[in-house]
C-alpha cells in the first residue's frame, strides 16, 4: 500500500503554497487561526480537539538527542497524503526506504494519518497554519529558552518563499535537509540547508560542489548501528549525524554521515546507501 501511494502523481505542495503566499504569521490573529483549525479538525474530521502542529523532542527520538532543544514539523512523506507531493525533488531510492515510513513511530497508521491530515490543513488553510505554527514556536521559546527548528522533518518545502517570517522568530534557529538541485533553494542566513545525496548519478558530484563551496552534504552509509562511520568521504571529513538531529552547530564543508535505518539497511545495491568505508 505504501509503495503504491508513493507513486501517485500529485501536485507539488511547495509550488501551490508559493503561488498563494508568502504568508506572514501576523496576517491573521491567533484567535481566528485557532477557530479555523478547530473547525477543520473537530468539525470536519471528528477530532476531539485541535492537535498541535509541532513534533516535540519528547515524541521524536532523534530530535530529543540534539544538544539544544529541537522541534520539527512532520508532514506526510512525498505523495502519501494522496493530494499533495511534499517532496518535489525526492527520488525512487529515497522514497523506497524512507525512514519516516519504514522505522519507528512512522509505521503507526495513526501517526501517518495525522501527518496526512496536517498536510491537507496546510494546503487548504495556509494562513491559519502559519499563524499557529509561529505561535507554537514562540510558546516553546517562552517555556524552554532558545530552540532549534526543522520545518521539513519529512518534507522538502521552500519555507524561505512560503513564509519567510517563520525563519526569523526571536530565539529560534532554523535548519533543514534538502534534495533540491543547486539554484532551487534560496540562501537565508538563519536557515542553513544540508544537501542530501541520493542514488542518482549526478547527486554525488552535486554534493561535492556543495562541499567545495562551504556548505554541507548528508550521506547514508551502510555502517551498522554501534559502529563508527567512515572518517572521510571523497576527501571530506564525516561528522556523525546520528548523534542529534540539529545541524546548526556543524562545521562547514563536512559530510553529515547517517547510518541506514529501516528498509534502507542492506539496501546499498539501490545506490542510495553508500559503502561505509573511508575514501
Spatial order of strands in the largest sheet? 5-6-7-10-9-8
Distance between the termini: 39 Å
Number of strands: 10
Order of helices and strands: HHHEHEHHHHEHEEEHEEEE
- Number of separate helices: 10
Largest sheet: 6 strands, mixed
Radius of gyration: 18 Å
Q: Please estimate the helix content.
A: 25-40%
Structural class of the secondary structure composition? alpha/beta
Q: Which whole number gives the mean pLDDT?
A: 90
Supply the number of structural domains: 1
Beta fraction: 5-15%
* Shape field: globular
List segments where confidence is low: pLDDT < 50 over at least 5 consecutive residues: 1-8
Considering the chains and any ligands shown, give keywords for the structure.
disordered N terminus, 279 residues, 6-stranded mixed sheet, alpha/beta, 4-stranded mixed sheet, 10 strands, single chain, 14% strand
Can you walk me through this structure?
It is a single chain. The protein is α/β, with parallel strands linked by helices. It has one domain. It contains ten helices and ten strands. A six-stranded mixed β-sheet has the order 5-6-7-10-9-8, with helices on one face. The longest helix has 19 residues, at 126-144. It is globular.
Amino acid at each position: 500500500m505504501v509503495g503504491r501511494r508513493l507513486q501517485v502523481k500529485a501536485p507539488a505542495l511547495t509550488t501551490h503554497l508559493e503561488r498563494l503566499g508568502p504568508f506572514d504569521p501576523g496576517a491573521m490573529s491567533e484567535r481566528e487561526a485557532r477557530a479555523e483549525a478547530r473547525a477543520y479538525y473537530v468539525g470536519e474530521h471528528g477530532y476531539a480537539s485541535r492537535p498541535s502542529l509541532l513534533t516535540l523532542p519528547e515524541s521524536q527520538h532523534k530530535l530529543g538527542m540534539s544538544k539544544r532543544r529541537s522541534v520539527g514539523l512532520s508532514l506526510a512523506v512525498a505523495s502519501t497524503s494522496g493530494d499533495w507531493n511534499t517532496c518535489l525533488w525526492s527520488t525512487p531510492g529515497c522514497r523506497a526506504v524512507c525512514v519516516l515510513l519504514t522505522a519507528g513511530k512512522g509505521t503507526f497508521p495513526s501517526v501517518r494519518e495525522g501527518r496526512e491530515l496536517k498536510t491537507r490543513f496546510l494546503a487548504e488553510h495556509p494562513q491559519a497554519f502559519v499563524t499557529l505554527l509561529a505561535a507554537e514556536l514562540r510558546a516553546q521559546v517562552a517555556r524552554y529558552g532558545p530552540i532549534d527548528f526543522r520545518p521539513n522533518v519529512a518534507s522538502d518545502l521552500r519555507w524561505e518563499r512560503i513564509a519567510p517570517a517563520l525563519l526569523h522568530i526571536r530565539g529560534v534557529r532554523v535548519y533543514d535537509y534538502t534534495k533540491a538541485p543547486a539554484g532551487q533553494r534560496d540562501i537565508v542566513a538563519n536557515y542553513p540547508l544540508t544537501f542530501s545525496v541520493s542514488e542518482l548519478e549526478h547527486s554525488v558530484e552535486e554534493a561535492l560542489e556543495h562541499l567545495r563551496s562551504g556548505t554541507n552534504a548528508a550521506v547514508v552509509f551502510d555502517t551498522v548501528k554501534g559502529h563508527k562511520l567512515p572518517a572521510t568521504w571523497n576527501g571530506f571529513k564525516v561528522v556523525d549525524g546520528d548523534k542529534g538531529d540539529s545541524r546548526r552547530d556543524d562545521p562547514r564543508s563536512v559530510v553529515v554521515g547517517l547510518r541506514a535505518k529501516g528498509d534502507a539497511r542492506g539496501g546499498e545495491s539501490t545506490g542510495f546507501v553508500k559503502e561505509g568505508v573511508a575514501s
